[in-house]
Amino acid sequence: GYWELNLALAGGPVLLVAVLLLDPDSWLNRGNATRVWAFRIGAYAGLAVLAGTLVAQVVSNLRGAGDVRRGFFGVIAVALENRGDPDEWRKLRHGRITHGLQFTSAARRREPTTYYGPKSGAGLALRRHPRRLAGQPLRVGLVGLGVGTLAAFAQAGDVFRAYEINPDVLRLSTGPDPAFTFLRDAPAEVTTILGDARLALERDPPLGLDVLALDAFSSDAIPVHLLTREAFALYLRHLRGPDGVVAVHVSNKYLDLKPVVRGLAGAFGLRAVLVDSPASGSVWSSDWVIVVRDDALLRDPEVDAAALPLAVNEPGLPLWTDDYSNLLLALKR
């Protein structure tokens, strides 16, 4: 089953109450009867609320899931929703975090969804890149696969290279019968690499990428080593030329990563803009920071209308390095 964590969380308080009940000198046994029973009822009620909350959490996380897998990185679940409806889709969940969804109908399965709509920062970078507008193929790197949604923007002649650290996530989008088919359906050359993206990029020769999309920061625990000065130096080494783009997905419930990316851009003399795209149907609102060397992409009218400036020279920005990072300063207030 998938109850071990929640049972362990409940086990501690249950054990504490049991020990107190067995101790004749504890506050659950000493004093007048009214006081003792008031404390006991309070303890029992607290345990009941805790148990109910933990059970509801597991049930919610696994509701509708047809494929549940547990690995080193936790439990992931694939759920089929809106069954029989024209909008039926398959969704990937990791706890309460949704990492992507795909429509099941052949007519809509290449449609970009969730945080990766056409007007998202990544969508704009892929659709409006100067090379794309000139009819030339793109070389694209993806750090964090999710369900492979960004491959929906692939065109013939493109090269997509996706890095994913979780083997269970990778298996859902690869193989002869994948649960999610964005990669398989893409008309581009698609390569997947299993492992830590930074380590893999350090081993790779310069890839000549036009767009590098970093999408590993939407969960509760973020890989800080992908947002340091040294990591950004590595990303820049893999860009093709002055019109290369790094798109960083910074949608996060608890952390405000925009100042972090802004500080990194400033450290390299780059320009950073925020694309805060609205929700529409199966496309969710999202925040992406686009980092560029020159303004070729930002001069595009569609990008210009969507982009909000992020000053890179503001004092006091927390510059993260391999030796220093501060998640407390990044907490949303």
Characterization of this structure:
It is a single chain. With 333 residues, this protein is an alpha/beta fold. It has two domains: 4-62; 112-330, Vaccinia Virus protein VP39 (Rossmann fold). Helices cover 32% and strands 22% of the residues. The chain contains eleven helices and twelve strands. It has helices spanning 4-22, 33-62, 121-127, 130-133, 167-173, 182-185, 197-203, 229-237, 258-267, 301-306, 327-330, and strands spanning 65-71, 74-81, 89-94, 97-103, 139-143, 159-164, 189-194, 211-214, 245-249, 271-277, 286-292, 307-310. The strands form two sheets. Strands 7-6-5-8-9-11-10-12 form an eight-stranded mixed β-sheet, sandwiched between helices. Strand 2 and strand 3 form a beta hairpin. Helix 1 runs antiparallel to helix 2. The relative contact order is 0.11. The model has no long low-confidence stretch (mean pLDDT 90).
